[in-house]
Amino acid sequence: MSDLQLSILKKVHDSNGVIENTLQVPEFADIDANTLHSNLTSLWAKEMITFSKIEIDQWNLTPEAESFVTNGATPEIQVVDEVLKSLETLTINDLKAKLGPIGLVGQGKAFKNKWLSKDGDKLVAKVDKLPQDIVLEELKTIKETGSLEDKKELTELKKRKLITLVKIVGYKVEKAAKFALEIKSYETDITAEMVANGSWKDAEFKPYNFNSEGVYPQSGALHPLMKVREEFRQIFFSMGFTEMPSNQYVETGFWNFDTLFVPQQHPARDLQDTFYLKDPVKAGKPEDMEYWDNIRKVHQEGKYGSIGYRYPWKEDESLRMVLRTHTTAISSAMLHKLAKDPKPCRLFSIDRVFRNEAVDATHLAEFHQVEGVLAGYDITLGDLIGFMEDFFGKMGVNGLRFKAAYNPYTEPSLEIFAYHKGLGKWVEIGNSGMFRPEMLESMGLPKNLRVLGWGLSLERPTMIKYGVSNIRELLGHKVSLDFIETNPAARLDEALV
Amino acid sequence: MPTISVDKEDLFKLLGQTYTTEEFDELCFEFGIELDEDTTEECENGERPQLKIEIPANRYDMLCIEGIAQALNEFLGRSEPPKFTLEPATPQITLTIKESTKAIRQYAASAVLRNIEFDERKYNSFIELQDKLHTNLCRNRTLVAIGTHDLDTLTPPFTYEALPPSEIKFVPLNQTKEMDGHQLMEFYEKDKHLGKYLHIIRDSPVFPVILDSNRTVGSLPPIINSNHSKITLNTKNVFIDITGTDKTKTEIVLNQIVAMFSRYSKVPFQIEPVQIISEFNNESRVCPNITPRKAEAEISYINSCVGLDYSGEQIAELLKKMSLSAAPSKTKEDIIDVEIPITRSDILHQCDIMEDAAIAFGYNNLVKTKPKSDSVVAAPLPINKVADILRLASSQSGYSEVLPLTLCSHDENFKYLRTVDDNTKAVKLENPKTVEYQVVRTTLVPGLLKTVKENRKHSLPIRVFEAGDIVLKNPELERKAYNQRNWSAVYVGKTSGFEYVQGLLGKIMQTMRTPWLENPKTDDRRGYWIEEDKENPTFFPGRGAKIFFRAVQGEEAKEIGSIGVLHPEVMQNFEIPYAGSSVEINAEVFL
What we know:
Number of domains of chain B: 4
Low-confidence stretches of chain B: none
Distance between the termini of chain A: 51 Å
Distance between the termini of chain B: 44 Å
Number of strands of chain A: 15
Shape of chain A: elongated
Number of helices of chain A: 19
Low-confidence stretches of chain A: none
CATH superfamily of the largest domain in chain B: Bira Bifunctional Protein, Domain 2
Oligomer: heterodimer
Radius of gyration of chain A: 46 Å
CATH class of the domain at 224-248 and 327-486 in chain A: Alpha Beta
Strand order of the largest sheet of chain A: 6-10-11-15-14-13-12
CATH superfamily of the domain at 224-248 and 327-486 in chain A: Bira Bifunctional Protein, Domain 2
Mean pLDDT of chain B: 95
CATH class of the largest domain in chain B: Alpha Beta
C-alpha cells in the first residue's frame, strides 16, 4: 500500500510536480480505481498532494469482436470469400457446414450489404472481388484507442453488440504543501503509554477534523413537561409560595363545585364536561357540617350579603363523585383549613385535572393546571395586577393586559393577556380573580381577608415555548422517546430565537 | 361562553358610530366581552358582515344585538337605561297553572308585547335570543322553556296544565298534520334539532301544555309550539309563555325577553302584564316584575378592593356606565343604594357591584401595587420532594422519564397484565367518551408499556420510568379514594433485563439510604430485600418477586412493591415484540 503511495510521490516528483492523468502512466494504469483513490486520499490527508478525478468513456470490444480481430476478418467478408472461392457453386447448407454459426451471421450481413444474392439454393456473389473489411478496421482502431471518430459507427457497432462502453477513472495528481518523497507516520491519539514513556514528544499527530460531532453520552432524561413544571415551582418558591397537597384526584361535587359557589345546574357540571364515577358512586359528607350547611344556604337562599342562586340545592348532587376538574378543589379545602386560624398565606399547586372533553390537538382528557392562591388582608385589584406582572415577569412575559371575564367563584375575574410577537396578537395566558365572599365567608374566613387565585395550564406555555403543535406528543404515551432524550433545558425566562 | 353573531352595520347604527375592527376590539376588551371575528373580509355577493362576539356566561342581557348595543351605549355614556312600564297596570289576561303540572314542570311566567313592529332582522334576532337562552340559561330547555305566540290567534284566558299525551292533539309548528303527544314523540325522535329535548318529558305520564280558553294548544313545553299560534313578520301582539322547573330562572328568562323586545312596542319598553294564578303552590302573582332590585354596597369595601379613594357619588358615576343606578344612602354611613335593573340578574352580592365599578374605572387604569409581603416561608410538598429525588436518581441511571395518562382502559389495567379486578381497588368512571378512560390506574406499569409500544422503533434497550400517582379506593374516606405516589421503571430489549431493573432498584434504594439485606431474617437493620412471588400473574413463573422494606431497625418490614420478568403474554397484550422486566414501588414509604 504505502509502496504505491511512495511510487506515486516519486512519479509526481519525476514529472515536474504533476501527473496529468494516471491512466497514461503505465505503472498505474492497471491499478483498480478504488485502491488508487484511497491511497491518494491518504496522501491528501497528510497535505502532501492534491488530486482531482478524470473520467473517460472507453469502448471495449466484446469477445465476439475480439474473435473477428483474431480471425483477421468479419463473418460477412469470410462468407463472400467462400462464395467467390467456390465459383458460385456453394449452397446455404454447404456454407453452414463450412463456417458453422458464423456463416449464418455473415450471410445475413452480406445480403444486407448487397454483396450476395440467392439463385435457388445457390449463393451468388454480386461483387467480383472481396470488398474492403471496414468493420474490422474500425474494431482494430477501437481496440487501440478506445474510441472512433465516427460516432454513428460507434452506435452501429454497439447495436451489433461488438463493443461496450465503460467509464474509466484516472486522476490528476499535483504536489501540495507538505510534499516529500518519504511518508511520515502520524499518531491518531495520545495513549496512556505515550504519556507514561514520553514518546508523545517525538510523535507527529494526525490533524483533527473539528467539523464533526462527538460521541454522545448514554444518558437518561427528565420529561420536558416536568422540566417546565420545575421552572414554575421555582418561581413560586422564590415568591414565598408553599406547595399544596394536590395529590387527590377523586373529589366530591361538594368540594369540586359547591364550595366554589358553582351552582348545581352549571354547565361545567354536565356529563359532557365532567367525569363522574360509578365506583365509588357516593361520597361522604364533610366533617364540618356547619360549613356544609353554610354552602347549602348560600346557594339556595343566599347568605353573607348575597341573594344566592335561589334554587333547591340537592345533597345528592353534592355527594356525587367526580374526577376533579380543577385543582381549585384543593385550594378550597386548603382555604377551609385556613379558616381555623385565618392569616395571610401563599399557596400553589401544579397537578393533573380531568375534563370529559373530546380529544384533539390541543385538548386532552387530562392535563396539568398551574394554580396560585394568595390570601392577605385588604388586598386590592391593583395588588393582583402588580403581582401578576411580577409573576409573569419571572418567566420573561412583560406588558400584561387584563380583561374582565366571568367565573363563578371569582369576582372580579380577570383574564390575563400578553402580546405574542410570533403570532402578532394578544393571547390569553391565564385567568385570575378574587375569590367570591360567598365562598370564603362560608368557610368562616374574615370578610377582609381577601384571596387572589390564578391559574393557567402547564401544557400551553410549554407547547408555545417549544413549538409543539399536538398536545398528545407532549403528554401521554404517544410521546417520542427521542423527543424526551434530546430536549434542551427548560428556561422559561430564556428568549428563544 | 356564548358567541353572538350580530349584524355589523346594524350594531354600529345602534351605537351611533362606525368602528374599525381594531377600535371595536379595543372597546370589547375594555368592557369585558371579546370580538371573536369580523366576517367583513369573507362576505360574498351581498352577504351582510357579521361581528361574532363572545359574551360572559352570566350576562344573559347581552345574548342579542339589542342587549349588546344597550350595554355598550350605557358604558359609553350615550344612553340611559330603559324605563320599563306596565300597561295596563292591572292585568287583563290570566294564565292559570293547574296542580297537575307539579308532576312535571310546575312554574310558569308570562307577558304580552303589544303593537310590535317586526322586520326580518328583528324577527330573526327575537328567535335567536330564544335559542341562546334555551342553550345557556335554560340548560337545553331542562330548566326553562320559552314559547312565543301570535296573541291574535288565541283566546285568553290561558291555562297551563299537564295532560296525558293521548289527550293533547295539535299541529306542531311548521307541520300540517295533527298529532297527539305519543305521535309527536315518535315524529320528532330522529329530528336533529328537537330530538335532543324529548327525553325531558317523554317518560312522564303527563305532558305540560299551554291552552287557551277554547282548549286550543299554544305549546307543548319544552318541545314545541303549535302551528296555529305561529309568530310571523306580521304578528303585532306577542304572547310569551315561560315554563320551567326552576322558579328563579323562569323569572329571569321572562325578564330578559321583555327587556330586550319591549323596545319594539309602539310605546318603547311598555309591557302588558299577565296575572298568574297558581294557587296550589302559592305562586300567584303579576308577571313580569319589572321593579329594580334594591341592593346596598359599602363604599369602603369598593374603594378597598379596587384600590380607590372615591366618594359615593363618584362610585355612582362609575356604576351608571354599567347600567346600575346608584346614589349614596341618605340614612346609612358608607353605603350606596344601588338599583339593579331586571337585565342584571348576574348581580348577587356587593362584590358584583364592586366588579362593575372596577370595569367602569378600567382594569388597565388601575394603579399597580404589590401585595404586602407578609412573612411567608415556602416549602415543597413532601411527597413531591421524595418523587424528585427518585426522578433524578432514575434519570442519572440512564432511564428516561415518561408521562402517560392516569386514565386507562379496564383491560390495560387488569386483563393485559393478566390480573383480575376484585373491585376493591380501582376507581371507575361513569361517563367516559372512549374506552381509553374507563378506570384510574392502580399501577404505573400499563402506561410505561403503552409508551414503549409507541416507541418500538427506538434503539434497544428501551429504559423508561415514571414517578406518578395511582388512585385506590377506600370506603372510610369522605372522598372514598386516595392517591398514592408510586415509582416504576421498565426495561425492554432483546433479553428480559431482570438484573438491570434490579440494579436500578438497588440504585434507588442506595439513594434513599436503604441497604440490601442479604439475611433479612437475622439482620434487622433498615434495608430492603426481595422474595419470590409465585402468585403475581404479571410476571413469568419463577421470575417475579415482592419487594420488602424495613424503615427502622427492629421494626416490621412492609411489602412495598414488585419486580419481575414481564410475562410474554403481557408483552403481546401491549404489542411489544421484545422481552422486558418491570419494577414498581410505593414511594410514600420514604416520606
